[in-house]
Design goal:
Blueprint (H helix, E strand, L loop, with lengths): L1 E5 L8 E5 L9 E10 L2 H8 L15 E9 L11 E4 L30 E5 L3 E3 L6 H4 L2 H15 L7 E5 L3 H12 L3 E6 L2 H9 L4 E4 L6 H8 L5 E6 L3 H9 L1 E9 L12 H7 L2 E4 L5 H14 L5 E6 L3 H10 L5 E5 L3
Parallel strand pairs: 8-9, 8-11, 9-10, 11-12, 12-13, 14-15
Antiparallel strand pairs: 1-2, 3-4, 3-6, 3-15, 4-5, 5-7
């Protein structure tokens, strides 16, 4: 079978199409014909060698994908041949708290991802793809969507009428916009682009703040909420934006720390956490249990992921470049049938 490997660190020029042996299913395993995969910024960092953890190479990238079960091993009971499944980001985090996750079993690093014609999945590390979604749409779910769901619902217990602040219009924030709006929450989005703020409103956001023209964007959030602030914050900027997230937070708010797009250096005054009694937590994607709950909500609310661009999987290098430099609005997806 064909697969695309990262053979040496340092960038997309080190991605190579190779031939690998066809995998065979072991006990409680299945073989999946990959139909589509999707990129995350984590994948970009791994390929260019800037990720905080170095993984053994060669490595097949990408944690996110969907495919059709074509063979099953002994004692498989959760799936059958012909089922359409997504692989879970954490291969051994079925449910419960993060203590149940095993870092050595993350798809796309350190174990091989789905950028190949076929992949082998443990039946405990997969979920049925929502029937209402196409392959291209379903491929986007395992990392960004589960992260947003886990933050707002599994951990956050979001309630109708609460205010959700989503920083930026990256894929995690856009999924959070859709989920929160469907749950009856008020959603505020920040962006440096008025055009993207308008696009975010089309998928469920109620208000937007341009942080380029309004540098003190936390004050803008407070103005929109009559001084109360946001109850849930999707914090993807890191230390550079955290201080303003605290300023924009309501008393007792929950700040979900997910990324560091604004950099990894900065200063935080812990007294600001104390004064507002804010709960800040890291969100490491989520469990299979969160994934399955999210998929039920997607089906009931007929939500569709925001897709920016679809490319043939053989053009993976171009997709990586576009995600890194093209400022997409929505997911970048690779179609493995092209």
């Amino acid at each position: 079978m064909r697969a695309i490997e990262l053979q040496t660190p340092g960038g997309v020029d080190n991605l190579r199409m190779v031939e690998r042996p066809m995998p065979e299913p072991g006990r409680q395993e299945m073989i999946v014909r990959v139909k589509a995969t999707a990129l995350n910024y984590r994948d970009v960092e791994i390929v260019r060698g800037s990720y905080h953890t170095a993984f053994p190479l060669p490595l097949v990238p990408l944690s996110d994908g969907v495919g059709e079960v074509v063979a099953i091993g002994a004692e498989v009971s959760r799936f059958k041949v012909g089922d359409r499944v997504c692989g879970a980001f954490w291969q051994r985090w079925v449910g419960g708290g993060f203590a149940m996750a095993e870092p050595s079993y993350q798809r796309g690093g350190p174990i091989d991802g789905l950028l190949s014609e076929f992949t082998r999945l443990d039946e405990q590390a997969a979920v049925l793809a929502p029937a209402i979604l196409s392959d291209v749409e379903a491929a986007t779910l395992p990392c960004a969507a589960v992260t947003a769901w886990h933050a707002l619902f599994t951990e956050g217990s979001l309630k109708p009428g609460e205010t959700v602040l989503c920083l930026g219009t990256g894929s995690v924030s856009l999924f959070a916009v859709q989920f929160a709006a469907a749950a009856g929450a008020r959603v505020i989005v920040t962006s440096s682009s008025d055009e993207k703020l308008a696009m975010a409103k089309q998928v469920g956001a109620h208000d937007g703040v341009n942080y380029r023209t309004d540098i003190d964007w936390a004050s803008g959030v407070l103005a929109l909420t009559d001084g109360r602030g946001a109850d849930h914050i999707i914090e993807v900027g890191g230390p550079q934006s955290f201080a303003q997230s605290l300023k924009a937070a309501a008393r007792g708010a929950q700040i979900n720390v997910i990324g560091y797009l604004g950099g990894s250096d900065g200063a935080i005054n812990p007294l600001d956490i104390f004064r507002r009694q804010v709960k800040a937590r890291g969100i490491p994607v989520g469990s299979r249990e969160s994934f399955e709950a999210m998929n039920r909500a997607i089906a009931v609310n007929r939500l569709r992921p925001v897709i920016d661009r679809v490319l043939p999987w053989s053009q993976a290098a171009e997709a990586f470049r576009y995600l890194d430099h093209g400022s997409p609005f929505g997911k970048v997806v690779l179609d493995h049938t092209l």
